[in-house]
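Hi support team,

I submitted a single chain yesterday and got back a structure, but I'm not sure I'm reading the token output correctly. Could someone confirm the output below corresponds to the sequence I sent? I've pasted both exactly as they appear in my results page.

Thanks,
R.
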Amino acid sequence: MFTITFHPTSQGAKTATVNLVHNASNTPTPFTFNISGTGIGSTLTLQRGVTTVSNGGIDTISGTISGAVSNLIYTVKTPAP
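Hi R., thanks for writing in. Yes, this is the structure output for that exact sequence:
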């Protein structure tokens, strides 16, 4: 028994072929079968509070900071598997 895990790294329907070379005399080698999956890609979401920063975008912060330290917290989210 064996397990094959197929994780496409780009979006959309994907296919692949698996070839198993063996020495069994009653079956042609390689034993070949096809696998398929749907890739979700590597989409990430960057947020500061409720503001979403688009891919390649700029997060513009307005206002004046005078004599104080201010922390900006960003959250990076990935889609659920």
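A quick pointer for reading it: The mean pLDDT is 79. Let us know if anything else looks off.

Best,
Support desk
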